[in-house]
């Protein structure tokens, strides 16, 4: 008896599960729809697949191959989900498939299978009528018409390229304005500063003697260097003042060169004593006393001051050299007389 009851219960549960699955399958609807059922060869239309389901339900769309019989699949869109506000808890999932065909005929599109968690459902089947292009064979066959020639005027070209033309005109205008500005702008007057006259020879020599005195060489027991520089100053002064060669000359050779110059004997003796003392210090290692070292500096300064060329004489010489030469009636050339202390 108990065994028989158990069998009844199992049968009841089976019937109940089948009924629930059928009810769930009825809640999920799969629909296939064509934009139009008739097309011409080579035209493309869209095949729409849609499923109305619960939000929690997971439905897998069919995976299509490149063709459905003789119907070619061109492209497939992604799944698109739309919520239906009129039906609470329901959503609509759609997919669009672009198809075409290149042979005339009526082609069946079988139903599509959608996989559920608890089974599968089928969409409705469709058919596609592909028609060929009707050709009127009673008319003659003509060649393909050539492209029509369209006139393209300069105005049309300006309309197409006005931006480039305007930019070129602006550049030319800017260049013209720049050239005009640089030509017309006031030029800066260059002020030529007169060259400063060179320092007189005696001023240069006196400045060098003052610098030598400030070095205090002999006070630091650098007597040889002191007399060497002192001798160089006097030799340079003689060479620039009287235009005689003094460099790499001995003292006797220097005095042989200046013996005919207009120098007072007193100044010659003063210069001779200075140069002889410098030679003795440099070559004989003589060490003069402090008073003699200072006295030789004073003698050098005194010699330069006594023999310096007077400024008024220098001006007269400059003016005389600037006078133009003229020829007298006998053909001799006359010029300004040059005066100065030889």
**How many structural domains are formed by the residues?**
3
Radius of gyration: 63 Å
- What share of residues are in beta strands? 15-25%
Fraction of residues in helix:
40-55%
Low-confidence stretches: 15-25, 316-342
CATH class of the largest domain: Mainly Beta
Helices and strands: which structural class?
alpha+beta
Quick tags:
342 residues; six-stranded antiparallel β-sheet; 8 helices; elongated
Task: Describe how the helices and strands are arranged.
Blueprint: H1 2-27, E1 29-34, E2 38-40, E3 44-54, E4 67-68, E5 71-76, E6 80-83, E7 90-100, E8 105-109, E9 113-115, E10 120-122, E11 126-131, H2 154-184, H3 201-215, H4 223-242, H5 251-258, H6 265-283, H7 290-307, H8 311-322, E12 326-327, E13 333-334
Parallel strand pairs: 2-11
Antiparallel strand pairs: 1-3, 3-7, 4-5, 5-7, 6-7, 8-11, 9-10, 12-13
Helix pairs in contact: 3-4, 3-7, 4-6, 4-7, 6-7
Write structural notes for this entry.
With 342 residues, the chain is of the alpha+beta class. It has 3 domains: 2-131, Immunoglobulins (Immunoglobulin-like), CATH 2.60.40; 153-185; 201-313, no CATH class. Helices cover 44% and strands 19% of the residues. It has 8 helices and 13 strands. The protein has helices at 2-27, 154-184, 201-215, 223-242, 251-258, 265-283, 290-307, 311-322, and strands spanning 29-34, 38-40, 44-54, 67-68, 71-76, 80-83, 90-100, 105-109, 113-115, 120-122, 126-131, 326-327, 333-334. Strands 1, 3, 4, 5, 6 and 7 form a 6-stranded antiparallel β-sheet that branches. Strand 9 (113-115) and strand 10 (120-122) form a beta hairpin. Helix 3 runs antiparallel to helix 4 (223-242), helix 4 runs antiparallel to helix 6 and helix 4 (223-242) packs parallel to helix 7 (290-307). The radius of gyration is 63 Å and the shape is elongated. The protein starts with a helix and ends in an 8-residue tail after the last strand. Residues 15-25 and 316-342 have low confidence and may be disordered.
């Amino acid at each position: 008896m108990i065994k028989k009851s158990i069998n009844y219960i199992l049968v009841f549960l089976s019937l109940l599960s089948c009924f629930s699955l059928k009810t769930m399958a009825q809640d999920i609807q799969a629909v296939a729809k064509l934009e139009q059922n008739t097309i011409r060869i080579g035209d493309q239309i869209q095949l729409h697949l849609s499923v109305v389901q619960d939000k929690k339900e997971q439905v897998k769309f069919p995976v299509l191959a490149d063709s459905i019989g003789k119907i070619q699949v061109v492209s497939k869109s992604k799944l698109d989900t739309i919520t239906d506000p009129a039906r609470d808890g329901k959503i609509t999932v759609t997919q669009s498939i672009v198809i075409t065909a290149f042979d005339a005929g009526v082609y069946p599109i079988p139903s599509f299978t959608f996989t559920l968690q608890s089974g599968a459902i089928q969409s409705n089947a469709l058919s596609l009528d592909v028609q060929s292009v009707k050709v009127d064979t009673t008319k003659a066959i003509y060649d393909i018409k050539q492209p029509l020639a369209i006139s393209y005027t300069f105005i049309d070209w300006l309309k197409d390229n006005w931006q480039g033309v305007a930019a070129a005109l602006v550049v030319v205008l800017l260049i013209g304005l720049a050239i005009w500005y640089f030509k017309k702008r006031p030029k800066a007057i260059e002020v030529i500063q007169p060259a400063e006259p060179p320092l007189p020879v005696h001023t240069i020599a006196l400045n060098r003697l003052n610098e030598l005195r400030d070095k205090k060489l002999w006070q630091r027991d650098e007597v040889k260097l002191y007399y060497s520089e002192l001798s160089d100053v006097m030799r340079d002064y003689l060479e620039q003042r009287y235009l005689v060669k003094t460099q790499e000359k001995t003292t006797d050779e220097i005095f042989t060169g200046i013996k005919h110059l207009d120098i007072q004997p007193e100044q010659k003796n003063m210069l001779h004593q200075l140069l002889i003392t410098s030679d003795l210090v440099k070559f004989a290692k003589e060490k003069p006393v402090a008073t003699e070292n200072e006295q030789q500096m004073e003698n050098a300064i005194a010699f330069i001051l006594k023999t310096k060329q007077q400024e008024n004489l220098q001006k007269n010489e400059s003016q005389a050299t600037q006078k133009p030469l003229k020829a007298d009636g006998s053909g001799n050339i006359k010029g300004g007389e040059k005066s100065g202390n030889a």
